[in-house]
Amino acid sequence: MSTPKRWPAAVYGEGEEPDYRFSLANERTFLAWLRTTLALIAAGVAVSVLELGVPEDIARGLAALLLGLGVISPAAAFLRWASTERALRHDAPLPSMGGLAVALTGVVLVAAAVIAVVVVRA
Amino acid sequence: MSEFATASPRGAQPERTALSWQRTALASAAGAAIIARHSADTLGLVALPLLLGTLGLTAAAFVLGRRRYDPDLGLRARRRDGRAPFALSMAVVALALTELLALTLGG
Known about the structure:
The complex is a heterodimer. By secondary structure, chain A is an all-alpha fold. Chain A has helices at about 10, 20-50, 55-90, 100-120. In chain A, helix 2 (about 20-50) runs antiparallel to helix 3. The longest helix of chain A is centred in the middle third of the chain and has 34 residues, at about 55-90. The radius of gyration of chain A is 19 Å and the shape is elongated. By secondary structure, chain B is an all-alpha fold. Helix content of chain B is about 75%, strand content about 0%. The longest helix of chain B is centred in the first third of the chain and has 31 residues, at about 15-45. Chain B starts with 12 loop residues before the first helix and ends with a helix. At the A-B interface, helix 2 and helix 3 of A face helix 1 and helix 4 of B.
């Protein structure tokens, strides 16, 4: 019986099967990133729909920023999942968070600042 | 190789992970419905194939996410690969792109 091929080969082509608990934790981390992305998209929709009392250009810019991050984050989350799984299979150090966490923190701080301005002006 | 690597997943870990798959897929499907409704005014009928495509990817991830933890040992190695993560990632990217498109065209 032939062994079924697993995709992507860049992850599963080499190395040994890691402790399954680490693989499952890696998947749950990936899924948590996706849910965080869904929250960012929801925030983008809310900013574009709700009347915040700030100039429209700022509201649209913030919405575009949140939605743009909603495009980038899932791709980054998948690449991060793949590189982590690959590192686990090679028993190598896990990859760093990279710029994604920094970018996400920056956007959340900008959104918080806009909300603070809205609340103070109200 | 770790002694756990050859053992079958047991305990609460597979169940917890399967539930995580399901709630993420359901949240994506709900998001797709809301965004399709919201962007329909701007995008018109274009929103429909985007919604159906996103729902299709979400459904694929839901099914693949469930099947990854099927007790059938013979197929487990095949099931737990990168297809389901990729499908769900693309579904969420499609969601964000749809709303971004509606925001851009909405003037």
